Amino acid sequence: MSNVYGQNDYEVMESSSLKINGSGFNLKKELILKSFGKPTRIFEPKYECGFLSEDEQGNKYFSLDYGNLKFTGNKKEGYQLEEIHFGPALRCKITFGKKLISHTTTRKEFESITGVKISGSGKTIYNKGADDAYIFTFVNDRLAKIEYWSPC
Fold it and tell me: Which residues contact 123 (CB under 8 A, 6 or more apart)?
């Protein structure tokens, strides 16, 4: 059975369906540094609103930018995998359920894996029981990017 469930006019998934190297998309900084090394840059994103906004949440947030991966968070909450840019240079294993997804994953394969119909260049899939979501973007019919999204 698919981890994605249709509900009204939007799609829902179990956030635990997405994994990076076998771990969930919310990680402790120590594990990120151990797995990926020193980031290319570390910065405060200063988002105006949302679940990763200092102004809205009352906590400072930091982004660990690796170029094709970006984690944002803090010591208290952990670090959310905020962006994945798929391509041949991406040297980690991203899975949805038990299926590997990569820059070679076609829209049709993605639909088969998730049970979600993709129209246009992408699809927003909400986390089950939550207000946040992931946006899956396709370029030339291949998976190009996953972005974390939270409401303002």
Answer: 11, 116, 117, 135, 136
Tokens of 67: 């170029």
Q: How many CB atoms lie within 10 A of CB 65?
A: 18
Tens digit of each residue's pLDDT, the chain (152 residues): 234 443 345 789 888 899 999 999 999 999 999 999 999 999 999 999 999 999 999 999 999 999 999 999 999 999 999 999 999 999 899 999 999 999 999 999 999 999 888 888 889 999 999 999 999 999 999 999 999 999 99
Rounded to two decimals, the pTM is 0.90
* Residue 19 structure tokens: 């994994």
Q: Which residues sit opposite 138 in a β-bridge? A: 143
Please say whether the beta carbons of 65 and 42 come within 8 A: yes
With b for 16 or more beta-carbon neighbours within 10 A and e for fewer, the 16-48 pattern comes to ebbbbeeeebebeeeebeeebeebeeeeeeebe
Give DSSP secondary structure letters for 112-137. HHH----BTTEEEEEETTSS-EEEEE
